[in-house]
Amino acid sequence: MFIFLEAASENTLFGDVIVSSGAFLILLLLIKKFAWGAITNIFEQRAEKISNDIDNAENAKKKAEELAKRRQEELSSSRQEASKILKDATATANTSSEKIIADAHEEVKNLKARATEEIAREHDDALGNVKDEIASISVKLAEKLIGNSLDEKSQSDLIDSYLDKLGNE
Protein backbone atom coordinates (compact mmCIF):
# COMPACT_ATOMS: atom_id res chain seq x y z
CA MET A 1 0.00 0.00 0.00
CA PHE A 2 2.82 2.20 0.72
CA ILE A 3 4.03 1.72 -2.84
CA PHE A 4 0.60 2.56 -4.10
CA LEU A 5 0.56 5.79 -2.18
CA GLU A 6 3.98 6.58 -3.43
CA ALA A 7 2.95 5.95 -6.98
CA ALA A 8 -0.24 7.88 -6.51
CA SER A 9 1.65 10.64 -4.86
CA GLU A 10 4.15 10.70 -7.72
CA ASN A 11 1.32 10.76 -10.18
CA THR A 12 -0.37 13.51 -8.29
CA LEU A 13 2.83 15.46 -8.03
CA PHE A 14 3.60 14.89 -11.67
CA GLY A 15 0.04 15.77 -12.57
CA ASP A 16 0.21 18.88 -10.45
CA VAL A 17 3.43 19.91 -12.21
CA ILE A 18 1.83 19.31 -15.59
CA VAL A 19 -1.33 21.21 -14.67
CA SER A 20 0.69 24.06 -13.11
CA SER A 21 3.01 24.20 -16.12
CA GLY A 22 0.05 24.16 -18.48
CA ALA A 23 -1.72 26.86 -16.49
CA PHE A 24 1.49 28.87 -16.48
CA LEU A 25 1.89 28.51 -20.24
CA ILE A 26 -1.75 29.46 -20.79
CA LEU A 27 -1.24 32.46 -18.50
CA LEU A 28 1.87 33.45 -20.46
CA LEU A 29 0.00 33.12 -23.76
CA LEU A 30 -2.90 35.20 -22.45
CA ILE A 31 -0.54 37.83 -21.03
CA LYS A 32 1.37 37.93 -24.34
CA LYS A 33 -1.82 38.20 -26.38
CA PHE A 34 -3.71 40.73 -24.24
CA ALA A 35 -1.34 42.49 -21.82
CA TRP A 36 2.23 42.19 -23.10
CA GLY A 37 1.76 44.75 -25.88
CA ALA A 38 0.18 47.23 -23.47
CA ILE A 39 2.91 46.66 -20.86
CA THR A 40 5.75 47.04 -23.37
CA ASN A 41 3.94 50.05 -24.85
CA ILE A 42 3.76 51.64 -21.39
CA PHE A 43 7.50 50.94 -20.86
CA GLU A 44 8.34 52.35 -24.30
CA GLN A 45 6.26 55.47 -23.63
CA ARG A 46 7.95 55.86 -20.25
CA ALA A 47 11.40 55.40 -21.85
CA GLU A 48 10.47 57.91 -24.57
CA LYS A 49 9.19 60.39 -21.98
CA ILE A 50 12.39 60.03 -19.95
CA SER A 51 14.45 60.47 -23.13
CA ASN A 52 12.44 63.58 -24.07
CA ASP A 53 12.79 64.94 -20.55
CA ILE A 54 16.55 64.42 -20.72
CA ASP A 55 16.69 66.11 -24.15
CA ASN A 56 14.56 69.00 -22.89
CA ALA A 57 16.76 69.34 -19.82
CA GLU A 58 19.89 69.40 -22.02
CA ASN A 59 18.29 72.00 -24.33
CA ALA A 60 17.26 74.10 -21.34
CA LYS A 61 20.79 73.81 -19.94
CA LYS A 62 22.28 74.89 -23.29
CA LYS A 63 19.85 77.83 -23.50
CA ALA A 64 20.68 78.83 -19.93
CA GLU A 65 24.41 78.64 -20.69
CA GLU A 66 23.93 80.71 -23.87
CA LEU A 67 21.82 83.23 -21.97
CA ALA A 68 24.43 83.45 -19.20
CA LYS A 69 27.18 83.88 -21.81
CA ARG A 70 25.18 86.56 -23.65
CA ARG A 71 24.45 88.39 -20.39
CA GLN A 72 28.14 88.22 -19.47
CA GLU A 73 29.06 89.66 -22.89
CA GLU A 74 26.43 92.40 -22.53
CA LEU A 75 27.70 93.17 -19.04
CA SER A 76 31.25 93.38 -20.35
CA SER A 77 30.08 95.56 -23.24
CA SER A 78 28.15 97.78 -20.83
CA ARG A 79 31.22 98.14 -18.64
CA GLN A 80 33.33 99.10 -21.64
CA GLU A 81 30.69 101.57 -22.80
CA ALA A 82 30.43 103.08 -19.32
CA SER A 83 34.22 103.38 -19.20
CA LYS A 84 34.22 105.08 -22.62
CA ILE A 85 31.45 107.47 -21.57
CA LEU A 86 33.37 108.29 -18.41
CA LYS A 87 36.57 108.92 -20.39
CA ASP A 88 34.68 111.09 -22.89
CA ALA A 89 33.04 113.05 -20.07
CA THR A 90 36.41 113.54 -18.39
CA ALA A 91 37.97 114.70 -21.66
CA THR A 92 35.05 117.06 -22.29
CA ALA A 93 35.31 118.42 -18.75
CA ASN A 94 39.06 118.95 -19.16
CA THR A 95 38.56 120.69 -22.50
CA SER A 96 35.82 122.88 -21.06
CA SER A 97 37.96 123.67 -18.03
CA GLU A 98 40.90 124.64 -20.21
CA LYS A 99 38.65 126.78 -22.43
CA ILE A 100 37.12 128.51 -19.40
CA ILE A 101 40.58 129.20 -17.97
CA ALA A 102 41.83 130.49 -21.34
CA ASP A 103 38.75 132.72 -21.67
CA ALA A 104 39.28 134.00 -18.13
CA HIS A 105 42.95 134.79 -18.91
CA GLU A 106 41.88 136.57 -22.09
CA GLU A 107 39.23 138.53 -20.19
CA VAL A 108 41.78 139.52 -17.53
CA LYS A 109 44.20 140.57 -20.27
CA ASN A 110 41.49 142.67 -21.93
CA LEU A 111 40.49 144.22 -18.60
CA LYS A 112 44.12 145.10 -17.89
CA ALA A 113 44.50 146.65 -21.36
CA ARG A 114 41.31 148.69 -20.91
CA ALA A 115 42.37 149.74 -17.42
CA THR A 116 45.81 150.77 -18.73
CA GLU A 117 44.19 152.76 -21.54
CA GLU A 118 41.78 154.39 -19.13
CA ILE A 119 44.60 155.21 -16.72
CA ALA A 120 46.60 156.72 -19.60
CA ARG A 121 43.57 158.73 -20.71
CA GLU A 122 42.89 159.90 -17.15
CA HIS A 123 46.60 160.79 -16.85
CA ASP A 124 46.46 162.74 -20.09
CA ASP A 125 43.25 164.48 -18.97
CA ALA A 126 44.81 165.28 -15.60
CA LEU A 127 47.93 166.63 -17.30
CA GLY A 128 45.77 168.72 -19.61
CA ASN A 129 43.83 170.10 -16.64
CA VAL A 130 47.08 170.78 -14.77
CA LYS A 131 48.51 172.52 -17.85
CA ASP A 132 45.39 174.65 -18.12
CA GLU A 133 45.60 175.54 -14.44
CA ILE A 134 49.30 176.25 -14.65
CA ALA A 135 48.74 178.32 -17.77
CA SER A 136 46.03 180.30 -16.08
CA ILE A 137 48.16 180.86 -12.96
CA SER A 138 51.20 181.69 -15.11
CA VAL A 139 49.24 184.24 -17.10
CA LYS A 140 47.94 185.89 -13.97
CA LEU A 141 51.39 185.87 -12.46
CA ALA A 142 52.92 187.26 -15.66
CA GLU A 143 50.25 189.94 -15.83
CA LYS A 144 51.06 190.99 -12.32
CA LEU A 145 54.76 190.95 -13.00
CA ILE A 146 54.57 192.63 -16.36
CA GLY A 147 51.63 194.79 -15.49
CA ASN A 148 49.57 194.31 -18.56
CA SER A 149 47.65 191.57 -20.30
CA LEU A 150 49.22 189.32 -22.80
CA ASP A 151 47.60 188.50 -26.04
CA GLU A 152 46.73 184.90 -26.82
CA LYS A 153 49.80 184.23 -28.91
CA SER A 154 52.17 185.57 -26.27
CA GLN A 155 50.28 183.79 -23.56
CA SER A 156 50.44 180.47 -25.47
CA ASP A 157 54.17 180.86 -26.15
CA LEU A 158 54.83 181.67 -22.49
CA ILE A 159 52.84 178.61 -21.30
CA ASP A 160 54.56 176.26 -23.71
CA SER A 161 58.02 177.44 -22.72
CA TYR A 162 57.13 177.12 -19.04
CA LEU A 163 55.79 173.60 -19.52
CA ASP A 164 58.85 172.63 -21.53
CA LYS A 165 61.04 173.77 -18.67
CA LEU A 166 58.89 171.77 -16.20
CA GLY A 167 59.06 168.67 -18.38
CA ASN A 168 62.87 168.86 -18.64
CA GLU A 169 63.40 169.27 -14.94
TrEMBL record:
What Pfam families does the record point to?
A: ATP-synt_B
- Give the membrane topology: Single-pass membrane protein
Q: Membrane-crossing residues?
A: 12-31
Q: Which domain of life is it from?
A: Bacteria
Q: Where is the composition biased (Basic and acidic residues)?
A: 63-87
Where is the stretch described as Disordered? 63-94
Compartments in which it is found: Cell membrane; Endomembrane system
Q: Which GO terms describe its molecular function?
A: proton-transporting ATP synthase activity, rotational mechanism; proton-transporting ATPase activity, rotational mechanism
Q: Which InterPro entries match?
A: ATP_synth_B-like_membr_sf, ATP_synth_b/b'su_bac/chlpt, ATP_synth_F0_bsu_bac, ATP_synthase_B_chain
Q: Does the keyword Cytoplasm apply?
A: no
Q: Which GO terms describe its cellular component?
A: endomembrane system; plasma membrane; proton-transporting ATP synthase complex
The reply to whether Nucleus figures as a keyword in the UniProt entry is no
Q: Which Gene3D superfamilies match?
A: 6.10.250.1580
The record, for SUPFAM superfamilies, names: F1F0 ATP synthase subunit B, membrane domain (SSF81573)
Q: Which family does it belong to?
A: Belongs to the ATPase B chain family.
- Function, please? F(1)F(0) ATP synthase produces ATP from ADP in the presence of a proton or sodium gradient. F-type ATPases consist of two structural domains, F(1) containing the extramembraneous catalytic core and F(0) containing the membrane proton channel, linked together by a central stalk and a peripheral stalk. During catalysis, ATP synthesis in the catalytic domain of F(1) is coupled via a rotary mechanism of the central stalk subunits to proton translocation. Component of the F(0) channel, it forms part of the peripheral stalk, linking F(1) to F(0).
Q: What is this protein called?
A: ATP synthase subunit b
Q: What organism is the protein native to? A: Floricoccus penangensis
**Gene name in the database record:** atpF
